[in-house]
């Protein structure tokens, strides 16, 4: 047995559930497009595929937020482990911040800090799962929900967002899909991928439907306050008196620091239903067996929230608004692409491809692969967010780069047109 002898058979292999779950994520598809770029193309690579504008100077985060991080780091108070639910001053800051737009006051006990909104999604889905349970997800949507549900064995069903109704939820479909094993529905507002912002009235109807069905609403509000159209942002938590709500958020999008990895899961539970159901206990248990956001980032949070001034937010909103208009107007010049409505929030718009006007394009994926190769740019094929032969276009770029991207898109469509 000098070398340990012969191994008959290795006992380990990669987890197959993961391969299946991660099959069609945004990151997976974008990586594939990036591999398709033409290395000889000297032009700048334009990324209209993902929502991370942090590298453009006009989207740099606020200096106040940077100072907050430096101060927290230098204070040496945050070199320690965090408590599993997050440190108290940071939870207090989030409770106060979100309470500004709610008809009542959240307490730090309602707030759980997470490693970005992504981790908050993982917590929310994990605590709801039991064998046979299912969750209702929007289509089009944010594929991380599908991927993580698949990974933990939570079944999912899709309800539509209706393009002809400004991407409102098909509430009849929600009622038809729900059964005795349905635990929750997910709502993303402002919308990714549709760029829509739900009205107060519609959100109220969603809350009433959820109450009727006895299911939880998981409100993904990672784009909170990034609105620039007729509808103001209304937090779903405002309807916590109708039905219990779990709100997910982070500083990734509003402060444009997705790399800082700080998010939250917040319960609005005026009637104590989540508490009674054991869900709050379950959240704490889950956080006991998962990791925490870096303590110094948590330590900086009170100052990030307090010191970032309105000028920063309005400058970002103005740029996004300019971008959204530019995108909508430029797309009108391209016959084979139509937007059902002008984006009013978030960083994205959904646009429909008319393949009959294109000579040699099979579908949305083929369109995006050829576009990457010929024009050195990325756009997400709709199939990645649940809508085949649509495109999800990110307009959150430096406006000149966006304009250039839309010009290339137009040239590509002309070249492949009939
Ligand atoms: C970006 C995004 C997230 C993830 O946010 P992080 O804070 O970066 O983890 C979650 N949900 C939606 C809809 C997003 O667009």
Automatic annotation (TrEMBL):
Keyword Transmembrane: no
Pfam families, A to Z: Aminotran_1_2
Organism superkingdom: Eukaryota
N6-(pyridoxal phosphate)lysine PTM positions: 253
Protein name: Aminotransferase class I/classII large domain-containing protein
Family of this protein: Belongs to the class-I pyridoxal-phosphate-dependent aminotransferase family.
Classification lineage: Eukaryota, Viridiplantae, Streptophyta, Embryophyta, Tracheophyta
GO MF terms, alphabetically ordered: L-tyrosine-2-oxoglutarate transaminase activity; pyridoxal phosphate binding
Keyword RNA-binding: no
Entry-linked PANTHER family: TYROSINE AMINOTRANSFERASE (PTHR45744:SF11)
SUPFAM superfamilies associated with the record: PLP-dependent transferases
InterPro entries reported for this sequence: Aminotransferase_I/II_large, PyrdxlP-dep_Trfase, PyrdxlP-dep_Trfase_major, PyrdxlP-dep_Trfase_small, TyrNic_aminoTrfase
Residue ranges of domain Aminotransferase class I/classII large in the record: 44-409
């Amino acid at each position: 047995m000098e070398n340990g002898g012969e191994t008959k058979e290795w006992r380990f292999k990669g987890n197959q559930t993961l391969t299946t779950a991660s099959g069609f994520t945004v990151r997976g598809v974008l990586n594939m497009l990036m591999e398709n770029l033409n290395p000889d193309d000297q032009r700048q690579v334009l990324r209209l595929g993902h929502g991370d504008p942090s590298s453009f100077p006009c989207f740099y985060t606020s200096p106040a937020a940077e100072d907050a991080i430096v101060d927290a780091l230098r204070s040496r108070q945050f070199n320690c482990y965090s408590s599993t639910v997050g440190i108290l001053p940071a939870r207090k800051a989030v409770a106060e911040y979100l309470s500004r737009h709610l008809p009542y006051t959240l307490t730090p006990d309602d707030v759980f800090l997470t490693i970005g909104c992504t981790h908050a999604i993982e917590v929310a889905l994990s605590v709801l799962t039991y064998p046979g349970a299912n969750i209702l997800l929007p289509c089009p949507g944010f594929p991380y929900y599908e991927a993580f549900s698949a990974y933990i064995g939570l079944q999912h069903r899709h309800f539509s967002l209706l393009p002809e109704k400004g991407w409102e939820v098909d509430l009849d479909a929600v009622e038809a899909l729900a059964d005795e094993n349905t635990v929750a529905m997910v709502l993303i507002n402002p919308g990714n991928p549709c760029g829509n912002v739900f009205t107060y009235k519609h959100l109220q109807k969603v809350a009433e439907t959820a109450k009727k069905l006895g299911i939880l609403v998981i409100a993904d509000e990672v784009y909170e306050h990034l609105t620039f159209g007729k509808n103001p942002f209304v937090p779903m938590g405002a309807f916590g008196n109708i039905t219990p709500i779990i709100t997910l958020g982070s500083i990734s999008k509003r402060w444009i620091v997705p790399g800082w990895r700080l998010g939250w899961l917040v319960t609005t539970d005026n009637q104590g239903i989540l508490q009674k159901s054991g869900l709050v206990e379950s959240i704490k248990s889950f956080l006991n067996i998962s990791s925490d956001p870096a303590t110094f980032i948590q330590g900086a949070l009170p100052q990030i929230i307090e010191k970032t001034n309105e000028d920063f937010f309005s400058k970002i909103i103005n740029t996004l608004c300019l971008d959204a208009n530019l995108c909508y107007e430029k797309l009108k010049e391209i016959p084979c692409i139509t937007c059902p409505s002008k984006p009013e929030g978030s960083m994205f718009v959904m646009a429909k491809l008319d393949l009959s006007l294109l000579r040699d394009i099979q579908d949305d994926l083929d369109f995006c692969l050829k576009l990457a190769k010929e024009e050195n740019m990325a756009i997400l094929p709709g199939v990645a967010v649940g809508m085949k032969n649509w495109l999800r276009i990110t307009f959150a770029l430096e406006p000149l780069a966006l304009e250039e991207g839309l010009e290339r898109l137009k040239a590509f469509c002309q070249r492949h047109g009939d």
